[in-house]
Predict the 3D structure of the following.
Amino acid sequence: MSIDCSKINNYYGKIAHLYDETRPLPPEVSENICNSILELVEATPETKFFEPGVGTGRIFLPIIKKGYSYTGLDISTTMMNQLRNKFQQMPENLTLIQGNAANLPFEANSFDVILTTHVLQCLEDPLIGLNEIQRVLKPNGIYLACEHLHCSYQEEFYQGFRKIITKYQKETRSDRNKIFPFGAEMAANLTKMGATTGIITVAKWQQSQTVAELFEMYRSRAFGLCWTISEADFNAAIQEFKIWCNANYQSENTVLCDQLNFNVVVARNWD
Ligand SMILES: C[S@@+](CC[C@H](N)C(=O)[O-])C[C@H]1O[C@@H](n2cnc3c(N)ncnc32)[C@H](O)[C@@H]1O
């Protein structure tokens, strides 16, 4: 079974209004990430950025606000509308296009810098997405495969939820891509495809959330694990998850805290 783009579109359409609050990134952190990236790519006023899977513009909004030419593409117009709504007036330097990252509507050698965060895993074959990125990246362009991963307490919570919800899933997602395009694996793929690669951490910060806040995020059904589950099954799973939370944390007011890293696989000389 292939990944159905209309299903993905529909799914993100439903959760777009919850997306940023369920993937929190403090504005000052996103500012730091963007400043580091601008420095890393030695951006000039002529630098043209492109982000497939731009979503709500959650991470790279400061680059757009600084006036750089920025093209975002996403399968979901509802996600991109969240980005549009962050401006009173659509900025001239921002172009948003509805499209498929597996079949980019651009000529070869169009962009100086291409950024992705957590979109390639949505494709049936992430390698097709990478080939498309390589095609539209200018010679001497830079591709940045970014990762906003879980910290330890978020991962513990996620795994607790995953264990419960998968019992209710009738449709498994094991047919999805075999490569998980992050970190060292992503760097290895890009090296195999001819790029010079490195992995750097562009931001580190302390994140804290209460158990109640984390539980609410999962209760809002904002995560992909809940895509294929009926309302009744989801309600049963969330009741079970509530019991799991009570058993694992002292109180719903318990504050969990840990360091988060924003990592980037940098690919250069990818001609
Ligand atoms: C996990 S979200 C990441 C959004 C954003 N990059 C971020 O990190 O906040 C994945 C995004 O990719 C988009 N997407 C999924 N499949 C896509 C495809 N085939 N082509 C373009 N965008 C796609 C979704 O609509 C969604 O906005």
Summary: The mean pLDDT is 92. The chain has nine helices and seven strands. The pocket of S-adenosylmethionine is lined by residues 5, 8, 12, 52-53, 55, 58-59, 73-76, 79, 100-102, 117-119, 122-123 (CB under 6 Å).
